[in-house]
Amino acid sequence: MTNELYSLGKESEQIEFKKSTGELKEGIISIASILNKHGKGKLYFGVRNDGIIIGQEISDNTLRSISQAIGNHLRPVIYPTISKEKYGNKTIIIVDFEGSQQPYLAYNVPRIRVADEDLVMEQPIYEEMMRKRDNISYSWESHKSKYKITDIDMEVFKSYLKRAKKAGRISFENDDPIDVMTKLELCDGKLLLNAGAALFVNCGINELQMAKFASDERLTFTDIRRFTGSIFDLADKAVQYIIDAMDWRVEFDGVLQRNEIPEIPVDAIREAVINSFGHRLVESGQSVEIAIYRSFIEIYNPGRFPDGLTPEMFIKGIHKPIRRNPLITRTLYYSKDMESFATGLKRIQDACDKVGCTVEFYSDDYGFTVRFYRHCGQGWEYEMSAKPETHGTHNGTHNDQYYKSQIIALIKDNNKITRKQMAAELSLSLRTVQRIINSMDTITFIGSGRGGHWEITD
User: Fold this and answer.
1) What are the beta bridge partners of residue 81?
2) What proportion of the chain, given as a percentage, has pLDDT over 70?
3) Which residue, 26, 121, 129, 422, is the most exposed by fewest CB within 10 angstroms?
4) Is pLDDT of 387 > 60?
5) Beta-strand (E) ranges in 150-285?
6) What's residue 2's pLDDT?
């Protein structure tokens, strides 16, 4: 029985067989070709061209290597499902992929599937696909969803309508959902478009993942949560999660009025969260992620920044807006949940600059991240230096000698370790680590910045 032959049939315009991952480059080219013709398909490794299963040797890193190669050499980025399956004593790899951002390029070349061949795409076809991708009438959000107007979360809908009317950006006399959705161009008859469902239906189109970590690395988490729902509902959950995780300090204005001040401006957080949902590549199936670290908070959006542009261009106001989901962002604009004209990043930067909070923006091939640094705004330096630290202490007082020995050990293990990394390892504030280092005459930092290193002297 172990030598029994298994067959998966024949290759087609949506199915490609490869004998092994030695043909990974050719497999990625087939993925792009199939996506450009049909939008989805399957690639098998460990299968001959005639469909006979011969098996594929699979190590711990095999699936990860396939995923990384697809991520590095296929544009726009997709998120395939990569799995393995056993037939008798032979194991094969299955890459199940889907995408709607045609044209796709493999190794910078667009191709298209014809029968079981991957042919270089002709220029007129490529240009027509580009026009369709840039045209709202062809976009994901304008397609009909499986959800009806009766599936709308009425609490979310009424709250939105109230905000939009208060903002003065819509003035519908009739509050009936069918009438409102029609005027907002979010439905086709009684069926919601994908944009309408994403905004107002408690469904699986949107996903939010949130976690708190014990340090500045994704090693030990103290809390993790996952939700699906409407954009409005998930945005509220994300903002509240961050508000609850932040530190707050109290100021009095001189007349016994108590003011609670957050370490990061709430307006900046809310702007970053709603932007992450509004500009997300929804069809990727990836989640918006909130990550709370000891020294910073990150909001991740699975939608890469436009090619050739940088966040600074939008912060300085030198580039016109580029909207990935114009139906969604327009609807958010009506309620003032999101401002138009590419002002989101500038509003975040301005709100942080006003209180001295440091914010950074990161973009890669998979998404966009806003990082807020904690405890760095006005008033927080004193607040955190006065805060007692009890980790590794005796009777609540610092044992400097203990921490000096720990710093020596950290340097011996990695002589390029930064002060911030030391603080995270020792569960101390950066200010305390610097104070202890200043009292040590047995260590010296040679050089500057990332190129420098520590030396230990007798």
Assistant:
1) 96
2) 85
3) 26
4) no
5) 187-188, 191-193, 206-213, 221-229, 248-252, 258-262
6) 52
Tell me the C-alpha distance between 292 and 372, whole Å.
10
| 111, 207: one domain | no
Report residue 79 as tokens. 């998120």
State the pLDDT confidence band at 14, using cuts at 50, 70 and 90.
very high
CATH of the domain at 448: 1.10.10
Same domain, 252 and 299: yes
Q: Which helix (H) or strand (E) holds 412?
A: helix 400-413
pLDDT higher than threshold 50 for residue 301: yes
Segment 150-176 mean pLDDT: 92
Same domain, 230 and 365: yes
Mean pLDDT on 239-251? 87
- Exposed e or buried b per residue across 289-327, where buried means at least 16 C-beta atoms within 10 angstroms of its C-beta: bbbbbbbbbbbbbbbbbeeeeebebbbeeeeeeebbbbb
- Are residues 277 and 367 both part of a single domain? yes
Question: What does DSSP assign to residue 137?
Answer: G
| pLDDT (0 to 100) of residue 433 | 80
Predicted confidence (pLDDT) at residue 308 exceeds the cutoff of 70: no
pLDDT for residue 235 is more than 80:
yes
CA–CA gap between residue 299 and residue 315 (Å, rounded): 18
**Same-domain pairing of 271 and 261:** yes
Rounded Cα distance between 306 and 67, Å, is 22
Q: Burial of 133 by CB count in 10 Å (0-12 exposed, 13-18 middle, 19+ buried)?
A: middle
Retrieve residue 179's tokens.
Answer: 């009438």
Instruction: Please state the domain count of the chain.
Output: 3
Q: Considering the domain boundaries, does residue 6 fall inside one?
A: no
- Domain assignment of residue 53, given as a range: 15-134
Q: Please name the helix (run of DSSP H) or strand (run of DSSP E) that holds residue 232, with its range, or none.
A: helix 231-245
Q: Is residue 196 one of the residues assigned to a domain?
A: yes
Is 383 contained in some domain? yes
- Average pLDDT in the 253-276 region? 82
